[in-house]
Amino acid sequence: MTDLTRLSAVETRQAIASGAASAVEVAQAHLDRIAAVDDRVHAFLHVDAEGALAQARRVDTGEVTGPLAGVPLALKDVICQEGIPTTVGSKILEGWRPPYDATLTTRLKGAGVVILGKTNMDEFAMGSSTEHSAYGPTHNPWDLTRIPGGSGGGSSAALASYQAPLAIGTDTGGSIRQPASVTGTVGVKPTYGGVSRYGLVAFSSSLDQAGPCARNVLDAALLHEVIAGYDPKDSTSIDAPVPPVVEAARSGDVKGLRIGVVKELQGDGYEPGVTARFNEAVEVLRGLGATVTEVSCPHFGYALPAYYLIAPSEASSNLARFDAVRYGLRVGDDGVRSLEEVMALTRAQGFGPEVKRRIILGTYALSSGYYDAYYGQAQKVRTLISGDFRKAWDSVDVLVAPTCPTVAFPLGAKLEDPLAMYKQDICSIPANLYGGPAASFPAGLSEGLPVGLQVMAPTLREDLLYLVGAALEQALPASVPTLDWE
Amino acid sequence: MPEITRDEVAHLAKLARLALDESELDRLAGQLDVILGAVAQIKEATDASDVRPTSHAVPLENVTRPDVVMPSLTPEQALSGAPAVEDGRFRVPQILSDES
Question: What is the span of the domain harbouring residue B9?
């Protein structure tokens, strides 16, 4: 019997549907894999063996069917799953078990997807390395001494180490795409409002967006189709049909597609190996019949400062709900201290350094006297960046850039320099501010480590992302990690 | 002149209900000064007063739902994650401290 953990989601479903393997066997193979390697990778914060096997049995009895029925998945710990610990990588929610399912979780369960457990992440999704998790970092399966990206490093590492063929990430400022880039996997940030945020623990509500992660393009598209679509429980959900992502992923025909290379997202600060792989991939697309031009997006240079004002501002407000009253940690309730003192002590002990930095930064940007110069100005820049995108759509169908200026860096390398860490997201943030879909696809290796190519598309044109991703996947040789640490 | 002083950070921490200790304040003040120095370039991005701010990627207005009774959490479920519960309610520490 072939190793069930090496199969794609599509192959896994075929194996189950043909009777070559049962869903329970598939789930057990992945649970065994987690038990064998996750002490070194640390992709999971919680493994729900009982729930996974119960769901697999429902698939085996025919109670649930569908294109992904019986396929295992790793769920980022920012998404609520009823009765299963959900920490968001924070001590402040340690031990909390949500009393309800996120809409995304409900959809996964309804599709027969087998949720293996909850994956590690930077606390409240604030970070680019998972080193800001209160539960210790995740290690990149390509090189265990390096970061797996962040905030969704647990999900990307689970995929790259064959602990799951599918995963869910969330992308507020690159947290799906940068981890995909540095682990050689596929990660898609849907259009803002494309996937319900109901039951997603909020970081920056105007930017947060959940999306699919996988080891190949078609698997990601199939997962996309399961989780996307209108949800009346999320007031920002878009009431429109899901773009034809699966069809696009099966096609990969980019003949005549107009591709724009973003002028501002290259040059100084980009590793030579990243630039080389990116340029080669663009040439491959040109060779497949796409037209390639350079497009200037003059305001993209201001995306990083705009993001680091808007996201912390929203976070400082959103995270006010962690008040030691309704859920999670309470510290210092000795019958003497006041509610306010208990609240301040709880938050000081429950939040880690990066979360505190961003709460203070956001509180500052929103305070009177600074509001116009910082938050107000950042919102204007958001308008200008969206304008750059709209102008680009006059001449091209998609924009491309490297996903990240570097390959995976060593654990610890940027931990004491927050600004250097923030710059990991310099290429991914414009799409978040604009709201359109964007994805990272593998584009080969530099010094033995994965490089990602990012594709950005107009609002609700996710199909174009998958079209380009599939074309690259068909044309480029596949790169897989050696996993020589096993 | 620094973008932000240690005293300002201490004040902001108080507003944000974060009981930071002295060493945390020292470290944060330095880091925030560097971060604010970098994000301050936002001021150069535009001086156009006619640029409308974008608060949200999707232009939606007044999204409402039909006013019908739907199943929701039971009181037990809603209270299930609370650090302290009494008589079917969230129990909180005293609202006013002695000196207040």
Answer: 1-44
CB A407 within 8 A of CB A449: yes
Q: Do A305 and B9 touch (CB under 8 A)?
A: no
| B83 φ/ψ sector (left φ>0, alpha ψ -120 to 50, else beta) | alpha
A76 is catalytic: yes
Give the ipTM.
0.93
For B81, the closest of A306, A327, A386 (CB atoms) is A327
How far is residue A35's CA from residue A341's CA, in Å, rounded to a whole number?
42
What are the chain A neighbours of B90 within 8 Å (beta carbons)?
325-326
Which residue among A90, A128, A129, A151 is the active-site one?
A151
A133 has catalytic annotation: no
A414 touches chain B (CB under 8 A): no
With respect to residue B33, please indicate whether it lies within any of the assigned structural domains. yes
**Residue in B15, B35, B81 closest to A96 by CB:** B81
State chain A's mean pLDDT as an integer. Answer: 97
Best A132, A380, A433 member to test B by mutation, with max B CBs in 10 Å, is A380
Residue whose C-alpha is closest to residue A433's, from B53, B51, B57, B42 = B57
Cβ–Cβ below 8 Å for A418 and B34: yes
3-state SS class at A458: coil
Helix (H) or strand (E) holding A114, with range, is strand A114-119
Give B-chain residues touching A304 at CB under 8 angstroms. Answer: 38-39
The CA–CA distances, whole Å, from A266 to A27, A270, B19 equal 43, 6, 42
A175 carries an active-site annotation: yes
- The whole domain housing A183 covers 4-264+275-295+394-475
Return d(Cα A155, Cα A68) in angstroms, integer.
18
CATH code of B30's domain:
1.10.20.60
Closest to A92 (Cα-Cα) out of A344, A340, A417: A344
Tokens of A65: 């069917």
Q: Is residue A288 part of a domain?
A: yes
Mean pLDDT, contiguous 10-residue spans, chain A (486 residues): 92 98 98 98 98 98 97 98 98 96 98 98 98 98 98 98 98 98 98 98 97 98 98 93 98 98 95 98 98 97 96 97 95 94 97 97 92 92 96 98 98 93 95 98 98 98 98 96 95
Residue A114 belongs to a domain with what CATH number?
A: 3.90.1300.10
Task: Give Cβ neighbours of residue A266 (< 8 Å, ≥ 6 apart).
Answer: A275, A278, A401, A402
Total tally of structural domains belonging to chain B: 1
Count: domains in chain A: 1
User: Which secondary structure element, helix H or strand E, spans residue A293, and what is its range?
Assistant: strand A291-295
